[in-house]
Amino acid sequence: MKVFLLLFVLARCALAADVNLDKPVDSLVLTDGRTLHKVEFVSFSASAAMARWEGGRGTLKYEVLPEPYKVAAEKRRPAGSSSSSTARDSLSETALEGTKSAGKLKLGEIALRAIESTESYTHYSWTAKIANNTAEVRRVRTHAVLLDGKAFKLDEAYSDNETIAPGAVVILAGKSLVKTPIWKQVKTYTVEVRE
User: Fold this and answer.
1) 63-to-68, 73, 74, 76, 126 alpha-carbon distances in Å
2) SS3 state of residue 61
3) Do 68 and 105 share a domain, yes or no?
């Protein structure tokens, strides 16, 4: 039994070592039964990977990826959501003409910035000041979308959920990871509040 378990662990590590998420995947069979062709992973957030494939693009939750891809993708999953003051590259609302939407809540200042960058990947974060002007407690999160000059969605990510008391003002922060060549294409962004 111990030998079988050891072989299983070694096989899993070997499969993960063979997966290169920086190169397109000819065919990817997901655990939900879908088969995607010519898949290119673009970025990794706390809950899903952003990818493009023949005929579409979108987020793929880690749990629907086949085992070797799931293991490799989870290694790139960013840690929790928080803002950082050690920004190397700052992109502000005025510089990028970011847009915002909040529904019943009031969304104030928004900001987006790179917090760490290498030749391959850029970690970025965003902040949003949110006021709950309603009489009810609201549970919300922010949704950030990075866009190129033609409004093509390059990446999207969500912050963690936060509870906002009536009359309270909070600053929600989120963090994600994207390939550096994609980050360099960002011209504008949007931040929305989701309930």
Assistant:
1) 11, 10, 10, 14, 26
2) strand
3) no
Cβ atoms of 122 and 114 within 8 Å: the answer is yes
| 108's tokens | 């104030």
Indicate if 181 and 94 belong to the same structural domain: yes
Report the distance separating Cα 125 and Cα 171, nearest Å.
Answer: 13
pLDDT of 43-85, one tens digit each? 887 778 888 888 777 778 888 899 989 888 888 876 533 222 2
The alpha-carbon radius of gyration of the chain (Å, integer) is: 19
The pTM score is: 0.51
Dump pLDDT digits (tens) for 171-188. Answer: 888 999 999 999 999 888
Both tokens of residue 120?
């391959």
Residue 81 is assigned to a structural domain of this protein? no
| Structural domain that includes position 126 | 89-194
Mean pLDDT of the chain: 76
My answer on whether 95 and 16 are in the same domain is no
Which helix or strand (DSSP H or E) is residue 125 part of?
Answer: strand 121-131
In terms of domains, do 124 and 174 share one? Answer: yes
Structure tokens of 55? Answer: 């005929």
